[in-house]
Amino acid sequence: MDRAPQNSSDNTAQNAPHASPEGTVGSTTLSGNQIFRLAHRLSDGVNGARIQLARRWNFVPQTIAYQGYGSTGWVRVLGRVLLTRKPAPGSHAEHAARNGTQNVRGWRAFTSVPVQFTDVEITIGDVVTRVKADRGGLIDTVVDVQLSPGWHTAVLQAEGTEPAEALIRVVAPDVKFGIVSDIDDTVMVTALPRPFLALWNTFVLSERARMATPGMAVLLDRLTIEHPDAPVIYLSTGPWNAAPTLARFLSRNMYPAGTLLLTDWGLTQDRWFRSGQEHKHRNLERLAKEFPDMRWLLIGDNGQHDEQIYSGFAQEHAAKVAAIAIRQLSISESVFAGGHSEDGDHSASVVPWIYSPDGAGMAKQLTSLDLL
Fold first, then answer.
1. Distance separating alpha carbons of residues 360 and 342, to the nearest angstrom
2. pLDDT number for residue 272
3. By C-alpha distance, which of 109, 132, 118 is closest to 206?
4. Does the pTM exceed 0.85?
5. Residue 276 CA neighbour count, 13 Å, CB half
6. Where is 207: in which H helix or E strand?
């Protein structure tokens, strides 16, 4: 089984294939690896300064737990450790946070500061595991634990924080159908690829102004009714900073509960920038290994690279794909999104492909495939 590595302290990348071949600082010539290590030190220095400033502004450490998934012998646990501003006791903000009714401007999701490489204790039943958050404050690890199928709770706690509870969906070994869905322009209209509009949607727009894609919530709800034991995975290139906002959006618009698999911005161990396409491909491959007998319904849109990613996965794992459903962007959405891919010829594919501009059209075609 493909186990997530235990998050550990940052060992600066010795091989950085995506770093520049060489550069200069003053009269000293630096190799690509040296520049990459220097960038890591600079990034850590900036984050250290942000932490000092956040503490001066009375930000407090907080462990955030995200919904996870697993099988009867293991679970994938996701969370993050941040410095955040705590609402004043008795304030409207505290009341809204307690009841999940926040109406937050996008930029506020990016004011929190990741706490790097801190120890986190994970408790699931009688099993206690200790891991380290990564350089982005993220916890993404697998815990070996024997659990019955259904919903369970993992408790995450970093030093100096209150415990945070995460729901864990344990999938029974005999479940053979699962759902993977993109978010941007699939379940939520964002027109993400267009730079200025993406910045507006991400940093300025009130979260309650974001629109659900017509018919998609009903479609996913019907799928979970038809397949009540199916795991639901929301696989997106969006940043982990937006996870609380996305979770509230999905809940507010009546989408079924599911695991968010997002990415983070900035440096990685071996890259200057994270690859959204690689993030999706890697997680699809991981799901294929974690659930070898599962057939997935892959849902995306034709505004980014979903068709290409899903097509590549289906060619390698045709037996693991029940169907691929692609939402077609409207003309205006295509303009905002910077264009769209052409509907490909999939007549030679053994995997069914369906195209529709909304959830209702997808539902009709999935019904004809006996998936609804």
1. 21
2. 46
3. 109
4. no
5. 16
6. none
> Nearest to residue 118, comparing CAs of 90, 138, 99?
138
Residues 190 and 81: their CA atoms lie apart, in Å, by: 27
Beta-carbon contacts of 347 under 8 Å, excluding residues fewer than 6 positions away, are: none
Q: What is the pLDDT of residues 56-113, one digit of tens each?
A: 667 788 999 999 999 999 999 999 999 887 655 565 544 545 555 454 544 455 567 8
Summarised one tens digit per residue, pLDDT across range 131-154 is: 999 988 999 999 999 999 999 999
Q: Are strands 150-158 and 119-124 parallel, antiparallel or unpaired?
A: antiparallel
**DSSP code string of 234-263:** EEEEEEGGGHHHHHHHHHHTTPPP-EEEEE
| CB crowding 71-105: b at 16 or more within 10 Å, else e | beebbbbbbbbbbeeeeeeeeeeeeeeeeeebebe
Region 156-173: mean pLDDT is 96
Give the C-alpha separation, 61 to 84, whole Å.
6
Q: Are the C-beta atoms of 112 and 82 separated by less than 8 Å?
A: yes
Distance (Å, rounded) from C-alpha 86 to C-alpha 105? 16
Tell me phi and psi for residue 243, to 5 degrees. -55, -50
